[in-house]
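Appendix B. Raw example, untouched.
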Amino acid sequence: MAENESRKQTFTGIAARLGRLPAEKRRAALEVSAALAGVSLRASRTFVEAVPRAAKILSADDLRNWGEMGRRLAMGNAGQGAEYFERGVEALAKVPKEARSNVFKISTRQLVLSSSIAVETFDLIPLLANEIDDDSLLSETLKLAAEIANRSAKHSADFLRNAASVARVLKTFETQVTEVSRSAFDLGFLFATRTGGMTADLWSGIPKAIEGLEPEQAIQLLKNAGRVLDYGASVTIHFVSSGSEVLRRAAGAFDDWFNVLTKIAGQGNAVLIAFIRATPKFFRQLTGGSHNSTKIIAADEIHIGLIKRVLKLTAEIAERDAESALAAFRSSTAALKKVSLEQFEEWIETGLREKYEDSAKARRSYFALETRESNAFLHDTQKGLPLENIQSILRIYVEGLTGKEVEIAPLSAMPQESRIGDGRTIYLPSTVTEFDDDEMNFRLYKVLAAHGSGQIEFGTFSKDTRGLKAAYTDLRAQFEATAEQRDAFSLAGYLEDVQKGEKSLPDSGSTVPDAKLPKGSDYRAVLRVFPEPRLAKKIFGTMENARIDSRLRHSYRGLRKDLDLMKSILQKTRPYIFDVPMHQVPFELLFQITLCGGATDDAKQFYGQIVSEIETVIESYFYRRDAETPRSESELEHTGNSLKFSASSHLGGENLSTVADSVMATARVYNLFQNISAEQSAEAEPDKEEEHEYDFQDKAASEPVVDKAAKPESRPKQTQDIKDLF
């Protein structure tokens, strides 16, 4: 009797609490409890007991959805339904109100597949809300998961397992997270509408695909993936993975690659997927990457130019035959190790011209380099001395110089500026065609290999040296100083107030706090101090090659004849200085002085002051009293007893020049080039008042200022400047 009274009081209390709910929520609770009672009285009572707490969080519609999911669980197992209501919904407080309906929609759909998966997803979503910690991203994620659940309950669960990692990567885009997220979810909804469950596979690959990309690159990849979806879901998933690799290694060639892809796409998905899957290997090999390396280094402008030209050739083939284009694409990296790009182009053109009428099989075998005839055509285009013929000899030669194991790797394209390697591999042209004689071409290879080995032997990649530390501190102080401090230094010799004669800096040191070189840093860390690191890097490449040249002459007498030979050839092939574009004149002068034995007569005539300044820097930093042959034998007669010392001896105290000397010499030339640029800009402004002041109306006025005798009558135009080899 007492037990029944207690039960009545309990039900009375429950009814009273339900009566205090808002009318709409009370009506929803009564409807659900009645429906539950028809399935399980225990589940119905547990629901009614939990409703007052749940109503504080859920809306009336959400209460109905919550109860409906519990009813379906109770239909299969009454105990499981009761436990579901006992757990309550407090955890859903972290889910945005507008997204809660999707939580129940997803879980209810998954009940068709498995009650355990549905309950697991229901418990996972609050944890997901904590991890994502962004209402907008969470709402879009749940909305997309609900869309997937309408088509595949299983894949919606898989999708949610990857959702946190996608959100984490999206949040790394910071200020542009909204734009990148919009592109990602647009692709996701498009994928879900067309393919359903495969959206989970797409979502699992997105974090790796977009992590580390620039926001614009990520948006570009995702939007183009939406276009590729027209060719199928599998194609798109492969595209996202390979497209990411393209953007990381050679973003400038992405549009060209996509153009080839669209041309191939019209001829079947099988060849299209094969092309996309072959892409990472192609870009990895042409940008010098290793298959096992986790570090991806973006290609420079030279490699991007090479890649774009190869892709253009592939596109031309694809217009006629997609499978032949795929064969040429796959074989291009192997072919470019044997011949130059121009020779590769000739081989492609031969195939298009002579094999177009052949059978498809014969044409594809030609471009795949599978036939003797194809290989013969490729080698027929080969001119000069190929690297593969002497690669082992050069490796032994370099290892003898450095005492270390060094790799010799081919360059498919000549660099347009001085190249500094990585300290482990020496990059040489795949073919040298400068001379008709193989012996002369081999001597050029020796010089190039010696320069590459010199970078290793003479410390180009040294880290944490005293010289680099001092250079870093000095240059930080110089470039971080105020404009007034720099003016005082340059105009008044460390005087801040010229008239009063006050010192710019106290005796104790710089007003700029001393900065220390980060541990484990080499010359690259110092170059980043410059206001324009790209300009500094370009100058440094030439200065470091000049230093290596001087060290090679000092250390290896037997190399001097080869070095002198190359220097004389470089001198003969220099262009007339007025034929050089104005913005390239400073670099041409620098190259002539550092690696050609001196500026040409016409350069001295018209740029004498700049030439003198650069020569002073070279003499000061790279040529020493203890170097028995500081330059070529012939130049010794002209240098006399000129002062040869390290102007940066305070950087390390070494007798022979170090990489720190190259850095400091770079700073001197960098400042000089900055001044030249400023003067050229000032001179470029027209003075309208004086425009016609000296405009004499006679024939002499139209004559060139330069004496005709000073300009060579004819200079043969070269397709490849030998300067580009250094």
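End of appendix B.
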